[in-house]
Amino acid sequence: MIRLLFETEHILDGKVVPGAIAIADMTDRGISVDRRDMAVLDNIRERAREQMSRMPRERQIANFAELEVGVVRSLSYEGQTAFEVYASPLPGNPAHAHILTNIRGTRSTMKAVRALLIPHLANFKRLEELQPSQG
Q: pTM (2 decimals)?
């Protein structure tokens, strides 16, 4: 899966910040990703340009991180599966999917759940390095 990340909104001093994943996205709306095998690179690049134009100060440089579905689904919190991945095609983006958690709890619990996913975004690269899927 491909997740867009922007400097300085999501990445500061070369590191992905916790706020790169909003707790509300994680629990309600879903963390938007593109399924790698279906992703159309031109669509991802255009979406990045649009998102950067809406928040040019916070979204200065477009990056992406690749996540493995199986790895995300294997993350657990206190013995519970922490995340599920759902296909959620959108008009103009059939590759869209989202990551959600069913775990509920205090704000500190939700921060701990989010912290499980953040390291898996650390492999980010500049968006111009994104290449077509080989599979």
A: 0.91
